[in-house]
Amino acid sequence: MIPDLFEGERRDVPLAPGAILLGGFALPFEGPLVAALGRVVERAPFRHMVTPGGHRMSVAMTNCGAAGWVTDRTGYRYDGHDPESGRRWPPMPDVFADLAVQAAARAGFDGFAPDACLVNRYEPGTRLSLHQDKNERDFEAPIVSVSLGLPAVFLFGGSHRADTPRRVPLAHGDVVVWGGPARLRYHGVMPLEPGHHPLTGGHRINLTFRKAT
Ligand code: MD3
Ligand code: FE
User: Fold this and answer.
1) What are phi and psi of 11, to 5 degrees?
2) How many CB atoms neighbour CB 3 within 10 A?
3) How far apart are CA 141 and CA 180, in angstroms?
4) What residues are in contact with ligand 1 under a 6 Å CB criterion?
5) Predicted structure pTM score
6) Contact at 8 Å (CB) between 93 and 117?
7) Domains of the chain from N-terminus onward
8) pLDDT digit string (tens) for the chain, length 213 residues
9) I need a surface site. Which of 78, 161, 190, 212 has the fewest CB within 10 A?
10) Sequence-distant (≥ 6) Cβ neighbours of residue 27 within 8 angstroms
């Protein structure tokens, strides 16, 4: 028998009804993915947005696609324009959309048509507190999340903020699809531990693909 050298990196792990971890699913895309990300960030640099409560987010963010998630003192919303430049967000690169559509299909969501990709950049100490993603118009569509660079511990909670979250380690190349009954569950990310990754240096990057409008 031929041993599968990639066993342990390419695995499908159901996390909950509607949520599945596709371990290493993004690895075959990583070169073009990172190159395309560089072009997005040239046009729409990472920035620290401010929450409606006036707090500067520790996660640096940008977007690509027809709609981008933004927050400022007036609230959270999707907007077709980058408020920093006044220009449209960069178009979603084909390699981004291809990866997201293929991952969604593997998880049972055929026909996923993301119009927004939020890009989060974590540095050591950066965290994302427990929240729900509910600014999208349509909760029937899943969210596809792609992790690149340094590993992180993801917090997967329940339908109530007080539900004790489960810790899910996420590594470079992992993809998670969240849909159906998992779509509105609380989630967050533990503070990033310092480290070095050959493709992202001292950062973790997360892409979340959404059907926003
Ligand atoms: C579970 N990002 O951008 S992605 C976000 O790693 C966000 O940067 C995290 O949460 C990150 O909003 C986690 C995983 C994720 C995304 C959406 C979900 C998990 C989810 C929606 C429902 C349940
Ligand atoms: Fe989220």
Assistant:
1) -140, 145
2) 6
3) 8
4) 118, 120, 128, 133, 143, 145, 176, 178, 182-183, 185, 187, 189, 206, 208
5) 0.95
6) no
7) 14-157+164-210 (2.60.120.590)
8) 555 555 555 689 999 999 999 999 999 999 999 999 999 999 999 999 999 999 999 999 999 999 999 999 999 999 999 999 999 999 999 999 999 999 999 999 999 999 999 999 999 999 999 999 999 999 999 999 999 999 999 999 999 999 999 999 999 999 999 999 999 999 999 999 999 999 999 999 999 999 999
9) 161
10) 9, 10, 172, 173
d(CA 10, CA 94): 23
User: Tell me, what amino acid is at 48?
Assistant: H
For tokens 């072009």, what's the residue? Answer: 39
For tokens 């960030």, the residue is: 41
The protein residue whose alpha carbon is closest to atom 12 in ligand 1 is 133
Nearest to 195 by CA among 120, 122, 128, 145: 122
99: its two tokens = 């990866």
- Asked whether 47 and 100 are in contact (CB, 8 A), the reply is no
Q: Which two tokens stand for residue 44?
A: 């729409």
Q: Which residues contact 66 (CB under 8 A, 6 or more apart)?
A: 80, 89, 92, 115, 116, 213
